[in-house]
């Protein structure tokens, strides 16, 4: 192995420290950040994830309320819940846990979250604001992947970047976040004729597809940075989309899975929570001209 | 010259026919589409443009009201005007004419337009919806450029596409419109090290920078499609971003400037107007459950 291993946990820890300081400052102004998590139905698998999220939020000084609604709730009722949370000044961020029952389309629910409380960065206007280089609340995984690249000693302006995977909440947002930073970006996906032609020309490769072993060492330029966003279970182990062994021999930097993008994604959610709280505070102050 | 010249006027004429039919149908349901154009200050140059827009809208069967506000209007007053237009069911689309006085930031005004009346496709949530492949109202120039490519006998799935220029309302939206159609897209810009490396590998090149002669024949793959979105004045003539003579010798298809993307952009605005009117009709029907 020649690649330097990127320590996602250390990057996340630094971000959480910043979040904690910011949360303390906001609390002193009467704006202690508070997240509400919405899950629907009996989702045992998600429960562990939510509890973990809650633990990390509270460790960073954010209040976290986990709500669970019965499987039988309608989209209209749930939209009503959202309207209530949007209007409640004590709620600063709304997290919609997946999976949702099939009668609740996740996009419809995401659109019901007020953009200022959209800590997951999923609302169409949050996505559009990223395109406009107004980098307030972005989708957590995409923002995390880019934050990781920014820690490396690379000049991003003019950097040739290949993004493999063009999902709406990971691949595409990474693409225009990187464009906004001045990189030359190529986005590949399942219809791309030869992914290796593009990946081998790139100084940095992001992969977010969900296929273990998709990226191999021979698809990389020697010394390139490889940010692996995939999370797959193979023979009881969690692995990314890269064939770690062969990639680590060619890449200059590589993220492990687990311990790479994952922890930074959670830290980004918490960072979004304090950002959202600050935006709401500023919005209230402007709207009501209250001195705080 | 070996390239086939793409006839933007003919494409626009077909689109306008569809708009006219759709407008007639909407009018029969009590929803005759109506556009309101907002310009601010004494803008002689823009006036000709607005009058031309009005003529074309009316020829397509759309009502068009051109409003001019004095230079002295504040952002707050203009936002108030927008709120009024948003609430008025007789207004289906709002066009903000540029240039605006420096004390009126165009983005703030665009955000004040209700997304369902955003016929220019500039609101962050309109942009975000494109990213989400929800291709309702897109930015006119980007949509027009893509519509032109779609008229060519090319299989867009897997097509290698190079977009030169990464502006928020042209280059980037073209990129994800093309991604949504299955193309492999590379976005180049002023920080890209070697644009020719990317453009020469592409089956289709979009250029939207505003620099005459930027793309030359030797930067193209023989037989590629070249969609030229630039509009520049050179020695009293209107030219695009491509060196037409050398490009036409190499490309398979090429858009002229003028007469290429320009007329299709105007037709796209009109198409957005009938789309917006239909969305508003559907929205009202759903909200008030009125049989029409």
UniProtKB/TrEMBL annotation, chains A, B:
The protein's job, in short, is:
Catalyzes the oxidation of 5,10-methylenetetrahydrofolate to 5,10-methenyltetrahydrofolate and then the hydrolysis of 5,10-methenyltetrahydrofolate to 10-formyltetrahydrofolate.
Subunit structure, as described in the record: Homodimer.
Provide the family line: Belongs to the tetrahydrofolate dehydrogenase/cyclohydrolase family.
Q: In which pathway does it act?
A: One-carbon metabolism; tetrahydrofolate interconversion
**Cross-referenced CDD domains:** NAD_bind_m-THF_DH_Cyclohyd
Where on this chain does NADP(+) bind? Answer: 165-167, 231
Q: Which InterPro entries match?
A: Aminoacid_DH-like_N_sf (IPR046346), NAD(P)-bd_dom_sf (IPR036291), THF_DH/CycHdrlase (IPR000672), THF_DH/CycHdrlase_cat_dom (IPR020630), THF_DH/CycHdrlase_NAD-bd_dom (IPR020631)
**Would the keyword Amino-acid biosynthesis turn up in this protein's UniProt record?**
yes
Q: Which GO terms describe its biological process?
A: L-histidine biosynthetic process; methionine biosynthetic process; purine nucleotide biosynthetic process; tetrahydrofolate interconversion
E.C. designation(s): 1.5.1.5, 3.5.4.9
Please report the name of this protein according to its UniProt entry: Bifunctional protein FolD
Q: Which residues form the Tetrahydrofolate dehydrogenase/cyclohydrolase NAD(P)-binding domain?
A: 139-279
The organism sits in which domain of life? Bacteria
User: What keywords does the record list, in alphabetical order?
Assistant: Amino-acid biosynthesis, Histidine biosynthesis, Hydrolase, Methionine biosynthesis, Multifunctional enzyme, NADP, One-carbon metabolism, Oxidoreductase, Purine biosynthesis
A Pfam family reported for this protein in Swiss-Prot or TrEMBL: THF_DHG_CYH
Q: Does the keyword NADP apply?
A: yes
Alphabetical GO CC annotations of the entry are:
cytosol
Catalysed reactions listed for this entry:
(6R)-5,10-methenyltetrahydrofolate + H2O = (6R)-10-formyltetrahydrofolate + H(+); (6R)-5,10-methylene-5,6,7,8-tetrahydrofolate + NADP(+) = (6R)-5,10-methenyltetrahydrofolate + NADPH
Question: Which SUPFAM superfamilies does this entry report, sorted A to Z?
Answer: Aminoacid dehydrogenase-like, N-terminal domain (SSF53223), NAD(P)-binding Rossmann-fold domains (SSF51735)
* MF-aspect GO terms: methenyltetrahydrofolate cyclohydrolase activity; methylenetetrahydrofolate dehydrogenase (NADP+) activity
Q: Which residues form the Tetrahydrofolate dehydrogenase/cyclohydrolase catalytic domain?
A: 6-120
């Amino acid at each position: 192995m020649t690649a330097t291993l990127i320590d996602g946990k250390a990057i996340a820890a630094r971000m959480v420290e910043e979040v904690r300081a910011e949360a303390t400052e906001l609390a002193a102004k009467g704006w202690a950040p508070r997240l509400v998590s919405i899950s629907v139905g009996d989702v045992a698998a998600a429960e562990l994830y939510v509890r973990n999220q809650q633990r990390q939020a509270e460790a960073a000084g954010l209040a976290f309320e986990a709500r669970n609604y019965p499987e039988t709730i309608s989209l209209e009722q749930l939209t009503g819940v959202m309207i209530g949370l949007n209007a409640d000044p004590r709620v600063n961020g709304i997290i919609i846990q997946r999976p949702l029952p099939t009668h609740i389309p996740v996009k419809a629910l995401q659109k019901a979250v007020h953009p200022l409380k959209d800590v997951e960065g999923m609302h169409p206007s949050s996505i559009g604001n990223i395109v406009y280089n107004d980098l307030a609340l972005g989708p957590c995984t995409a923002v995390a992947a880019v934050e990781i690249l920014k820690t490396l000693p690379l000049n991003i302006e003019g950097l040739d970047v290949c993004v493999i995977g063009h999902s709406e909440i990971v691949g595409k947002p990474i693409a225009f976040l990187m464009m906004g930073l001045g990189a030359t970006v190529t986005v590949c996906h399942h219809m791309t004729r030869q992914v290796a032609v593009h990946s081998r020309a790139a100084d940095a490769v992001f992969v977010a597809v969900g296929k273990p072993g998709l990226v191999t060492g021979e698809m990389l330029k020697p010394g390139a940075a490889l940010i692996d966003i995939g999370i797959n279970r193979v023979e009881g182990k969690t692995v990314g989309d890269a064939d770690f062994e062969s990639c680590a021999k060619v890449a200059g930097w590589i993220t492990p899975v687990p311990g790479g993008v994952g922890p930074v994604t959670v830290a980004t959610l918490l960072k979004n929570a304090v950002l959202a709280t600050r935006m709401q505070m500023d919005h209230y102050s402007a709207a009501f001209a209250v001195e705080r």
